[in-house]
Amino acid sequence: MQTRSKRPLTLRDVSEASGVSEMTVSRVLRNKGDVSAATREKVKEAARQLGYVPNKIAGALASQRVNLIAVIIPSLKNMVFPEVLSGISEELDGTGLQPVVGVTDYKPEKEEKVLFEMLSWRPSGVIIAGLEHSDASRAMLLQAGIPVVEVMDTDGEPIDTAVGISHRRAGRMMADAIVAAGYKRIGFMGTKMPLDHRARKRFEGFTQTLAKNGIEIADQEFYSGGSALAKGREMTAAMLDRTPDLDFLYYSNDMIGAGGLLCLQDRGVDIPGTIGLAGFNGVELLDGLPRQLATMDACRFEIGQTAARIIAARNTEGASDDGQVVELEPKLTFGDTLRQA
Q1: Structure pTM?
Q2: Is 95 exposed, middle or buried (0-12, 13-18, 19+ CB in 10 A)?
Q3: Distance between CA atoms of 85 and 138, rounded to whole angstroms?
Q4: Are 180 and 341 in contact (CB under 8 A)?
């Protein structure tokens, strides 16, 4: 298992790992000079396994660092992440550090490319969403020699520092509230789990807690693509037509949950008497709905603030570079769609 580096890797490290000269390594990584295909592949593979990223500012700055913080998130379409970015930006204001954002579209291979490009400019830190990364991305983060803060999730082992909530705990908390309110026939709607690790963990905590109370999910449906009101309405209508005796609907996010709420209102369903429902994220945009959707605040702005504060502190002279896990507590809001026991 690789350990987190206290210094950035150098050409010499790649040279020793690949068995060729530093000059040859430099030519390969700059895509210059006459180097055989076999040697080129050997060098690239050694660099990939080490997590080496070339330094585009080598020799330009005495510090070998720029005052940029690489912020890598899965999406700008999802309303969750702009709040995280707002927290980061507000906390870094006045520190001399500036966030630069890269988007991965939830694709591990794209995360590798974005991370490679950003690290090549030698930023002063990395804030990256999630704890799950490809081997290549993990290697780059381990060997970057700068503060790395993984955000949104604490259910796992961080590379350096993690700031977020436990999504398994959030799922358990919601299940406990639903069981306490007396609901027993529960449907679930959410994103396809391989694409969203945090939604998967909430689902695991949710279903495990239901099982301990002798309840199984009565119906479930998963979708791919962006979260939208229309998708929530569509899935809710299909699920109720398919399983009409459901008495609670749990959605993996507020946007599809709001669509479900509109669907139930159109059908004249008694909420939360006949059917209760809840989402996740605590999206403020939905405060104008006729009924307040039960949801859970994932502390997004606070996560961004805390991550940026840690990065800024770690960039001060004499600061400790010890990693940590900062777990924030999700907050359940019952709204108008979940009975309180």
Answers
A1: 0.84
A2: middle
A3: 22
A4: yes
Residue 19: exposure state from Cβ atoms within 10 A (0-12, 13-18, ≥19): exposed
Contact indicator for 305, 89 with CB cutoff of 8 Å: no
**Residues 6 or more apart from 214 whose CB is under 8 A from it?**
none
Beta-bridge partner residues of 269: none
Distance CA 60, CA 14 (A): 22
The DSSP-derived string for 67-105 is: SEEEEEES-SSSTHHHHHHHHHHHHHTTTT-EEEEEE-T
List the strands of the sheet with 148-153, edge to edge. 98-103, 68-73, 125-129, 148-153, 161-165, 325-327
pLDDT tens, per residue, the chain with 341 residues: 566 766 778 889 999 999 999 999 988 887 777 899 999 999 999 999 999 988 766 654 555 678 899 999 998 887 789 999 999 999 999 898 999 999 998 899 999 999 999 999 889 999 999 999 999 999 999 999 999 999 999 999 999 999 999 999 999 999 999 999 999 999 999 987 677 889 999 999 999 999 999 999 999 999 877 668 899 999 999 999 999 999 999 999 999 999 999 999 999 999 999 999 999 998 876 777 888 999 999 999 999 999 999 999 999 877 777 889 999 999 999 999 999 97
Q: Which residue has the tokens 């580096």?
A: 5
Q: What are the phi and psi torsion angles at 57 (to 5°)?
A: -110, 15
Joined together, the tokens standing for residue 38 give: 């076999």
